[in-house]
Amino acid sequence: MYKIDLKFTANYLKILRNFSKFVIEKHAELPQSNNNQLYSFFSDLHTKLGRVTRKKRPLVEDISIKPNIIFQYKNPKGGKRKFHISLGGVIKLQQGIITEQCLVLNLMLEHTEGCDAIPDGWDNYPIENGYHILRRFHFDFDTNNDDISKPKFHLQYGGNFESEYLEVDEEVHYKLFSPIDHPRLPQQPYDIVMLFDFILREFELGGKGVINDSGWNKHVIECEKIWLIPYYKALLDRLQSTSRTTPIHRLNQ
Fold first, then answer.
1. HEC-encoded secondary structure of 100-123
2. Terminal-to-terminal C-alpha distance of the chain
3. N or C: which end of the chain has fewer CB within 10 A?
4. Structural domain contains residue 252
5. Is pTM beyond 0.85 here?
6. How far is CA 67 from its chain centroid?
7. Which domain holds residue 211?
8. Structural contact between residues 229 and 189, judged by C-beta atoms closer than 8 angstroms
9. Euclidean distance between CA atoms 101 and 212, whole angstroms
10. Helices (H) and strands (E) in the chain — how many of each?
11. CA 100, CA 89: separation in Å to the nearest integer?
């Protein structure tokens, strides 16, 4: 049984506070974000979680990554075009317990007058100046889902988007179809720390000296243990069940 309760939430927020402190200390060695958003988010988060720890009270505020933390990365097919990836989302709490987590990755193309011509094969892509959302992925956790009709941990593509999520001066173009809310693909849990680590490595944003450091990995592993051990234990128990009569793609926990 995957149980998110006061103890789980308190332990996780402690891990998140320690990771925030680490990011603050190492931020100069990490990839630079637009308007120093990376430092601002983790600095504010460390302060917020520090107040909770000192007062020994549950956190009653949601944790929102707003505006999104935006990094520029090099795409070999882009020529002089600027590509960006952003990390956004929210962790919702009720009575000090995590009830929902929605983390979002946006892959974006920035188009300007000085950009190269549209590459071959991109003929159907709009050329308006501004930021274009090319891909949008949700890594969600929702206790209201029952793991039978809707998986608690799932991945979605697209989804609703508001330009206010991004703090940019240029126009933001979002062409993905928002009303479709399916499929919800069963997905292992991701939290802010694991997803941030994934982004830095997948897109080679830099900061290798930090993200390959034992201190960084210690925080990532702590998050893996608290989120992944109960998930995979429940999955393994179900796989090994001799009385199982339904497919594994729904995790009946």
1. EEEEEEEEEEEECCCCCCCCCCCC
2. 5
3. N
4. no
5. yes
6. 13
7. 6-239
8. no
9. 27
10. 5, 7
11. 11
Number of domains in the chain: 1
Residue 29 lies inside a defined structural domain of this protein: yes
Helix (H) or strand (E) holding 67: strand 63-73
Is residue 1 included in any domain, yes or no?
no
Q: Which amino acid is at 45?
A: L
- How many angstroms separate the Cα of 167 from the Cα of each of 65, 68, 81? 11, 7, 20
Structure tokens at 168: 């940019």
One pLDDT digit (tens) per residue for the chain, 253 residues: 578 899 999 999 999 999 999 999 999 999 999 999 999 999 999 999 998 877 777 787 899 999 999 999 887 666 677 889 999 999 999 988 999 999 999 999 888 877 776 666 665 666 778 888 889 999 998 877 666 667 788 898 988 888 888 989 888 988 887 667 778 888 899 999 999 999 999 988 989 999 999 999 999 999 999 999 998 998 888 888 888 777 776 555 4
H or E element in which residue 126 lies:
none
**Residues paired with 111 in a beta bridge:** 130
Alpha helices (runs of H) in the chain, residue ranges in sequence order: 6-26, 37-55, 192-202, 208-211, 214-240
User: b/e string for 99-129 if b means 16 or more Cβ within 10 A?
Assistant: bbbbbbbbbbbbbeeebeeeeeeeeeeeeee
